[in-house]
C-alpha cells in the first residue's frame, strides 16, 4: 500500500517529561490535582450559567463556552499523560498521534478565537454601552460562536493535512504528547517549507491575535479614564481578568509556534503548562472576580447540598 511505502513508522514512543521517577511522581500529582479539582469547577461554571436565568448576558454565554472548550481541551492530553506516568512503555499509534494533534489545534484555535470574540464583547460593553444590546444580540453571538468553531476546524485540518503528507521512517521518539513541532522533527525529509507554513499558520496567527488583543484592551483602558470611579473600577476589573487569560493562553503558544521547530530545554515544561495546567485556569480566573457568577454558583451549591 502507498501508506506503508511512505510511512514506515506505525507508532511513536513517548519519552515523557523526565526520566527521573521522583520528578515523574511530582508532575503526576500536580496534573492529578489540576485535573480532578479545577476541572469540576469548569463544569460547575457551565452548569451555573445554564441553570441561572439571570446570567443571560453575552459575557456569560461566551464564558460558558470558554469553560466547555477548556474542559474538552484538557481531555486530549491529560488522561493519557496520567496513565503514561504509571506505565513503563509509553506508545501511541500513528493514527492516534494525528488524531491527538488535530483536536489539540482544533480546540486550541477555537479558544484563541473565542478570546478575540470576548475582547470584542468587552470593547462594545465598555466603549459603546448604549448600542451594546443591538450589536451583541443573540443572533450575532451565535454567529460569532459558529465562526470561531469553523475557524478552529480550518486551522486544525490544515495542520493535520500537512503532517499526513510527510514520510516517517524513524526515529519515532516524541516528548510528552503529539504536537506539530515534535512530529515534524521526526520526518525523514526536508521540512523547511512545511515548517514555514506551520509557523505562518500557527505562530503568525497567534502573534497577530495576541497583539490585536493587547491593542484592544489598551484602547479600552484609555477610554475609561474619564469614567466615574465606580465605572472605572469595574472596567479595570474586567480588563484585568481578560489580560491575565490572554497572557496565560498566548504566552506559551507564542514561545512554541513562532520560532523554527528546534528543541529547547524549556519546551517540555512550557508544553505541559500550556496544554494541561493553564487551560483549566482560564474560566476560573474569569469567574472568581465576577460577583454575579460567584453568587449564582454559591446558590446552586447551597441548593444541591440542602437537597
Overview of this protein structure:
The protein is mainly alpha-helical. It has one domain: Up-down Bundle (Rhopdopsin 7-helix transmembrane proteins). The protein has helices at 2-6, 21-51, 58-85, 94-127, 132-135, 138-164, 180-184, 192-223, 229-257, 267-288, 291-306; strands at 11-14, 91-93, 173-174. The chain has a three-stranded mixed β-sheet with strand order 2-1-3. Mean pLDDT is 82; it is low at 1-7. This is G-protein coupled receptors family 1 profile domain-containing protein. Putative odorant or sperm cell receptor. Residues 41-286 form the G-protein coupled receptors family 1 profile domain. The chain crosses the membrane at residues 25-47, 59-82, 102-128, 140-164, 204-224, 236-257, 269-288.
Amino acid at each position: 500500500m502507498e501508506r506503508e511505502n511512505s510511512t514506515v513508522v506505525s507508532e511513536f514512543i513517548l519519552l515523557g517529561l523526565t526520566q527521573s521517577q521522583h520528578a515523574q511522581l511530582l508532575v503526576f500529582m500536580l496534573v492529578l490535582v489540576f485535573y480532578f479539582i479545577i476541572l469540576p469547577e469548569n463544569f460547575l461554571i457551565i452548569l451555573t450559567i445554564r441553570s441561572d436565568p439571570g446570567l443571560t448576558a453575552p459575557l456569560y454565554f461566551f464564558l460558558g463556552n470558554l469553560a466547555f472548550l477548556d474542559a474538552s481541551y484538557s481531555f486530549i492530553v491529560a488522561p493519557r499523560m496520567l496513565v503514561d506516568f504509571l506505565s513503563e512503555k509509553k506508545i501511541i499509534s500513528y493514527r492516534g498521534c494525528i488524531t491527538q494533534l488535530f483536536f489539540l489545534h482544533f480546540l486550541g484555535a477555537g479558544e484563541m478565537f473565542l478570546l478575540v470574540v470576548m475582547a470584542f464583547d468587552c470593547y462594545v460593553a465598555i466603549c459603546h454601552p448604549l448600542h451594546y444590546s443591538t450589536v451583541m444580540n443573540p443572533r450575532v453571538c451565535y454567529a460569532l460562536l459558529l465562526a470561531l468553531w469553523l475557524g478552529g476546524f480550518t486551522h486544525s485540518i490544515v495542520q493535520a493535512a500537512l503532517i499526513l503528507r510527510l514520510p516517517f521512517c524513524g526515529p519515532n521518539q516524541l516528548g510528552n504528547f503529539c504536537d506539530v513541532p515534535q512530529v515534524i522533527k521526526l520526518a525523514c525529509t526536508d521540512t523547511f517549507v512545511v515548517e514555514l507554513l506551520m509557523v505562518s499558520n500557527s505562530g503568525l496567527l497567534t502573534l497577530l491575535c495576541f497583539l490585536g488583543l493587547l491593542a484592544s484592551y489598551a484602547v479600552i483602558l484609555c477610554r475609561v479614564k474619564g469614567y466615574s470611579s465606580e465605572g472605572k473600577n469595574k472596567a479595570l476589573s474586567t480588563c484585568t481578568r481578560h489580560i491575565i487569560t490572554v497572557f496565560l493562553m498566548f504566552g506559551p503558544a507564542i514561545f512554541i509556534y513562532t520560532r523554527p521547530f528546534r528543541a529547547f530545554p524549556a519546551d517540555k515544561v512550557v508544553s505541559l503548562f500550556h496544554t494541561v495546567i493553564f487551560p483549566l485556569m482560564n474560566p476560573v480566573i474569569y469567574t472568581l472576580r465576577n460577583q454575579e457568577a460567584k453568587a449564582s454558583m454559591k446558590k446552586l451549591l447551597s441548593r444541591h447540598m440542602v437537597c
